[in-house]
Structures are given as structure tokens and as C-alpha cells.
Design a protein that fits this description.
Elements: H1 2-17, H2 24-27, H3 36-57, H4 59-67, E1 75-76, E2 79-80, H5 90-94, E3 113-117, E4 127-131, H6 132-147
Antiparallel strand pairs: 1-2, 3-4
């Protein structure tokens, strides 16, 4: 039941928060003082939802979780214990799985994506895919931080 509550909650949260991202003034509402506990819960709920979606749709992540013997985190009340989710990094995930396997349904999207590449300061450059939605949100957040 908690699982379904969190998934429904994040869907509703995503729908209700979109208007807040429309202007520099309205986005400030997200950072109103005194709501840190609420923001913290929202972050855990969104993280849990992303975990569930990746577990369902990303072949590399499915294999990664299987190899780590992990199914899903426990809950404390309504809050998912996201610290229990195994951490992915360059060694145990990026280098181990092909870029396609790290995409939804094991297929690299053909439209609306760019491939970013790291500087390779560790010795080898790393590539990853960014979709249009992620790029727009990142650009919006960077702009907000530059303005304040």
C-alpha cells in the first residue's frame, strides 16, 4: 500500500509542481523557509519512484539489482528508506553495462537526446545520454541558481 501511495503521490506532486517552474518568481515558492521536512520527504518519494521505474524499464539496472540481491527498500512509515538502494558508480555500472542497456527498454532513443561526454580526467572519457526533459530542467535550475 505504501508503495502505491508513494507512486501516486509523486505523480500528483509532478503535476502540481509544474506551474512553479514557469517563472523565476514562482519557482522561489519551492524554497520557502520552514518546509525542509516536506522537501526532504518529496525528494525521497521522487527517488523511490525513479528507482521503481528504472527497475521496471532499464535492463542494466535490473541486472545490477539482481547481482546485488536487492529487490526494494523498506519503509519507515510512509517514507522509503532510499539509503538501502545499492549505489551505482562508474566501476560497478557505467563500465559494466553497454550504453543501450542503461537506456529504457534497452534501446537508445533516436530523437531528442544528446550524448554528453566527461572530460576523461580519470583516464577514460565516459558517455551518457540526456533527454530533452532532463536538459530543460537542468537549464532551468542552473538559470535559477545564477540569478540568486
Amino acid at each position: 500500500m505504501r508503495h502505491l501511495f508513494i507512486l501516486g503521490y509523486t505523480m500528483l506532486l509532478g503535476f502540481l509542481s509544474k506551474p512553479l517552474l514557469w517563472s523565476n518568481q514562482s519557482i522561489k515558492l519551492i524554497f520557502i523557509p520552514g518546509f525542509n521536512g516536506f522537501r526532504h520527504f518529496n525528494a525521497k518519494a521522487k527517488t523511490y519512484t525513479e528507482f521503481v521505474m528504472a527497475k521496471k524499464n532499464v535492463p542494466a539496472y535490473q541486472d545490477f539489482l539482481k547481482c546485488n540481491g536487492f529487490t526494494r527498500p523498506s519503509f519507515s512509515g510512509l517514507t522509503p528508506n532510499i539509503a538501502e538502494i545499492p549505489i551505482i558508480d562508474k566501476e560497478n555500472y557505467v563500465k559494466k553495462y553497454a550504453i543501450e542497456a542503461r537506456c529504457r527498454n534497452g534501446v537508445m532513443p533516436s530523437k531528442g537526446v544528446i550524448i554528453d561526454e566527461s572530460s576523461g580526467s580519470s583516464g577514460t572519457a565516459t558517455n551518457w545520454i540526456r533527454g530533452q526533459k532532463e536538459r530543460k530542467l537542468n537549464a532551468r535550475m542552473i538559470k535559477l541558481m545564477l540569478l540568486h
